[in-house]
């Protein structure tokens, strides 16, 4: 196992995950734009929000990969299949708690059940499994996270 392998896997995995989510949006399988969700928490400028969001998404990809790495070290093994399992759990956590419950509570430009009628939110809250962004969103999100995890686990196991 290697931290360098994890860093490389995080970069490649995040690139694949981001590309898959963007392609799914272009193919109208989802309306979710994860970099925009992240970036709009920092700025109201829509163009700048996308740029900042991509940077934040890649930084998050590295952070999550090193969380995977810590578990790999704790259990003494790593591999693409274990990474894929972590990716499945990561994708389910993102859709059920992280983005759908926690993000609306802290995102300054996202609506929530607590938003009053006169307030105007820049973003619609994702909802459970992010279903407010389309019926294909849960499947696309979980599949992309499984791919991310498999790449992180595989690169971590191969790194020397």
Structural key phrases:
elongated; 160 residues; mainly alpha
Helix content bin: 55-70%
Summarize the helix and strand pattern as letters. Answer: HHHHH
- Secondary structure class reads mainly alpha
Number of separate structural domains: 1
How many strands, which pairing sense, and closed or not: the largest β-sheet? none
**Rg calc:** 16 Å
Low-pLDDT segments: none
Distance between the termini: 6 Å
Protein name: Integral membrane protein
Keywords: Membrane, Transmembrane, Transmembrane helix
Transmembrane segments: 63-82, 89-110, 130-158
Organism: Streptomyces toxytricini
What does this structure look like?
It comes from Streptomyces toxytricini. Keywords: Membrane, Transmembrane, Transmembrane helix. This is Integral membrane protein. Helix content is 68%, strand content 0%. The relative contact order is 0.23. It is built from 5 helices and no strands. It has one domain (3-113, 122-158). It is elongated, with a radius of gyration of 16 Å. Helix 1 (3-26) crosses helix 3 and helix 4 (80-106) crosses helix 5 (137-158).
SSE diagram, text form:
Elements: H1 3-26, H2 34-39, H3 46-75, H4 80-106, H5 137-158
Helix pairs in contact: 1-3, 1-5, 3-5, 4-5
């Amino acid at each position: 196992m290697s931290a360098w392998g994890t860093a490389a896997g995080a970069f490649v995995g995040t690139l694949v995950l981001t590309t898959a989510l963007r392609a799914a949006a272009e193919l109208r399988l989802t309306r979710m734009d994860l970099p925009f969700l992240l970036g709009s928490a920092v700025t109201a400028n829509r163009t700048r929000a996308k740029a900042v969001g991509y940077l934040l998404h890649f930084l998050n990809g590295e952070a999550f990969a090193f969380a995977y790495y810590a578990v790999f070290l704790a259990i003494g093994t790593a591999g693409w299949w274990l990474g894929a399992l972590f990716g499945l759990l990561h994708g389910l956590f993102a859709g059920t708690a992280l983005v759908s419950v926690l993000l609306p509570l802290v995102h300054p430009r996202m609506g929530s059940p607590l938003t009053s009628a006169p307030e105007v939110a820049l973003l619609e809250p994702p909802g459970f499994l992010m279903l407010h962004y389309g019926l294909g969103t849960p499947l696309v999100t979980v599949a992309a996270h499984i791919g991310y995890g498999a790449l992180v686990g595989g690169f971590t196991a191969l790194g020397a």
